[in-house]
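Fold it.
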Amino acid sequence: SELSSGINAEYGDHRRKNRSQESLQANVLRLKEYKSRLILFPRKASKPKKGDSTQAEIDVATQLTGPVLPIKQTWSDTTARAITDEEKKQSAFQTMRMYRANVRLVGVREKRAKEAAEDDGLGVKKKKK
C-alpha cells in the first residue's frame, strides 16, 4: 500500500524484483514501523495539512544520529555435515543438462512415440526422406 510519506511499502523500487514473500513482509513491517516513528513537519506551521504531525509531537522531536532502523538479518541455524556417498555420486551439472535436454526434446519424443504407435497398428513403417 502507498504510504502517505511517499514510501511504497509493498513494491518499493520498480526495478527491484523481490520474489521472497518472507523478506517482502519483513520490509513492509519495517517500513510501517518507520512510518509510525516518522514526524512530518508541516511546510507552513500556520496551515498544517492532513498527515502532518501534531504540535505536541513536533515539540518533542529530536534529531536522530546513526542508523535509525537497522535491517535485522535473520540466519537459519544450519550446521555443517559430511557429504554422503550418494551425494558424491550425483553430478549437479549432469542433472541440470539432462533436465534441460528433457525439456527441449519433449515435442520430438512425443512425435516419435505417436508415429511409433501408428506404425505398430499398421505393421508398415514409413520411409524417411
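The radius of gyration is 31 Å.
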